[in-house]
Amino acid sequence: MSKKSKAYRAAVEAFPQEPVSAQAAFEALKKAPEKKFDQTVEVHFRLGIDTRQSDQQIRGMVALPAGSGKDVRVAVFAEGDAADKAKAAGADIVGSDDLVKDVQAGKMDFDAVVATPDQMAKVGRLGKVLGPRGLMPNPKLGTVTPNVEQAIKDLKGGKVEYRADKFGICHVILGKMSFSADQLLENYNSVYDTIVRAKPASAKGKYIKSINVSATMTPSISIEC
């Protein structure tokens, strides 16, 4: 078992030990010792769902009003006019057959992928490479679309994915430690509302069982739910 640092142990002692309001949680998180890098802040929802059931899968995109704090590099599979629009919209990489070859060769200098519908026959061949990395374009996420301009704008503007893992836990990015407590709270409220609306009709019992927020190198803080 790895030994926790002195700063980590001090943060544990200083953080609330019982669930608190979201506002109090982010105010407490902001008091954690500073690191040499801008830590990512995430929220973790433990949900009362059975992800083995096809009608209880939870996955989608949510816009963060204050942004994600991350410079997202977007690759777009498109040709012709759609490719031109993607470049004009700020896509970092645009291509078709050439981009397929690059990905197959392991060249993946991007954080998100968008594809026009006509490109999916080609992109589908990359499922074993993009899928495990969570990069496979998906119509439900708005990343398979003829409107590549809007998709690029959304991804670069702070739209992030949420998805319940096999344990029914959603881990969602909220921003960076450099954000103010109010900015983190604003993003949290947007994510919370989205998760609540995503509740499957077949889910029984308490839906949101617990909520915890933490940064990359901090203990977690429980939020009242």
Beta-strand share of residues: 15-25%
Let me know the largest β-sheet. 4 strands, antiparallel
Order of helices and strands: HHEEEHEHEHHHEEHEE
Number of DSSP helical runs? 8
Q: Please give the alpha-carbon distance between the first and last residues.
A: 31 Å
DSSP strand tally = 9
Helix content: 25-40%
Average pLDDT over all residues: 92
Rg, rounded, reads 19 Å
CA-based shape: globular
Quick recap:
The protein has 225 residues and is of the alpha/beta class. The chain has eight helices and nine strands. The chain has a four-stranded antiparallel β-sheet, covered by helices on one side. It has a three-stranded parallel β-sheet with strand order 4-3-5, with helices on both faces. A two-stranded antiparallel ribbon has the order 2-6.
